[in-house]
Every structure is written in structure tokens, then in C-alpha cells.
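Example 3.2
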Amino acid sequence: MKGVILAGGSGSRLLPLTTVVNKHLLPVYNKPMIMYPIQTLVNAGITEVLLVTGGNHSGGFLQLLGNGRKFGLNELHYTYQEGVGGIADALSLARDFANGGKIVVMLGDNIIEKHICKEVELFSAVLHGGAMVVLKGVEHPERFGVAEVDHPDGRILRIIEKPTEARSNFAVTGIYMYDSTVFEYIDSIKPSARGELEITDVNNIYLNFNKLCHTILDGWWTDAGTFESLHRASCLVEKGGANHVDKGKE
């Protein structure tokens, strides 16, 4: 499988820090934010990655990451998202890169304590197609896409983007896995009220076709897109590390 990291956007919630630097190059404890999703994918056996960036400071990624070899990648590709069209719009730029195969997608500001090795193996080798979302129980689910789950059998009933009143505490993390039909579904959706192509709409199409499965992430998870979550991410990494893979326990 190939990996896609979405690291575009304006970073407006982190102004003035993002006036002269892309959000995903800001430090999280002792290294730039973008290095964490890269390490997550490498730990899961992904060695070919497309980085989707945007904004006015995208050149910093090339300076920092180069060809990706020193981070464990065999190939690191780059593409540029013009404007701020949403997560699904950014993902659409990976169509040629995916080349009809399955992909693992991560948002560039998502940081996890452990790994997604089992999730990637399941989606790659066992499931024949469809999509997988990774969920995590959180204190403030209204900040995210929220999965309403049928608890008796664990099925997702629907996903609501940033609900006023969340009907569960299961946030859809910025970790997704898709088959090649994801690009057809992106083509079929319309911009939301905020003018963006929402990844939640794409996930709900898979759900309507009964092709969406999910897992619950082990260990902590955080985004780093606000001052509060950026600080929290640094504190979590300092206390407990991130992207740890204990090969003896897998």
C-alpha cells in the first residue's frame, strides 16, 4: 500500500505562528510536526508516500524532508493544493499516485502514541475493498467528525461533521484507508456550506454502500491544529513518546 499525508491548509488557527511557516513544520516537542505522521506510516510498512501541501511556505518541506530516504521512505513525492478546498479536495490530488491501488491517508497534524500496523495489515491483506476509518474516544468530540455507533454490534450508523451536540464521543481521527473508488466518490460530492469538499461526505458514501469499517485506536491520539492541541501534543510526546513499535508485542 501507498501512503498519502495531507499537509495543506492555511493554518489560520495558529496565527501568527503560521505567518512565515507552514503549520506542519512547527515543532511538536523535539521535532517538526510532519515527522510524526511520516514515522507512523513507515512503522506500518509504508515506504512510498505522497505529501500534499499548500499555502505560501511549502518549500520548507523539501528543505526538511528531501527525498525521504533518511526517514525510512523509499520514495517521497510532492504535490501542491491550490487554495483551501478541504481534505477531500486535497486527497483528490493523489489519484494518479494511487494508480488504482489502496492507500493509507493521514492528516499531517495527527500524532499517535503507538502504531497502526494491524490496521494497515488488515485493510491491505484481508479486506477486499471499501474504506476504514480509525476512531478514538475524546473529551470534546464536537471539534471533529463524530461517528454515531450502534453499540450492540459496533456498527457506524452515520458520521456527522462537527456536530453541535455529539451523540457519541468517538471522533474520526485523521487516519483513513481507501480503495480506488474514493476518487469517484470525491468527484460526486459538492462543497459544504463552508465551501470545502468534506471527507465526512466521502466516508458517508462508503457507509451508505455498506463498505465502511472501523477500528478503535490503541493509545493516545491528538491533532495539533490549535494552540491548545499543539501544546497538548508536545506534552504527550514528552511524557510518553510517539509512534512506538514494540516488535515483541505485535
